Amino acid sequence: MSRCFSLLLAASLLAGCASRPPALLLHRDKIRDFSLEGRFALRVTMPGQAPQNSGGRLTWTHQNRSDRVLLSSPLGYGLAEIETTPELSQLRTAEGKQRESTDPDALIEEVTGQRLPVTRMPAWLLGRSGGTAQISPDPAGRPGRLIEDGWQVDYAYDDEASSALPSRLNISRNGEIELKLRIEEWKERP
Hints:
The protein is mainly beta.
């Protein structure tokens, strides 16, 4: 159960080592559709419970306001898939279990007990507000820190260019959830 909980939590949000830095794409403000490959490490500390840790690889595709996130173990074995469209969200596990909802945030809350910002993640990955965020720039003028509704996203870059996309994100909330994401490759989707 705890493995399933951690897996689903990771699927909703998204540190390992990377072999190559993210490629430079169009300026982040012009990017609408993208895909990325990366690694994640997730730590969940709920009150009165021992911390739970999980990690692995992920492939995320964001296109036409829809998302597809594939999660796999560090060795590449498929664990889960989440697909969201403006109309429907589906979660499928490697064991063949499936859940659906018209609200991706509510779907994750139903499964994990936590209302997580699934709908904001594509914007956060690019350093944009998913609603009413406060964004502080780094010295190069890129997003350095984003704070929105109790969530904090810290960005790091492998490239000094002001148009570089983030290579590392640390997403956290009140010491309960910490997700480290290492993006190995960004691709713009036509």
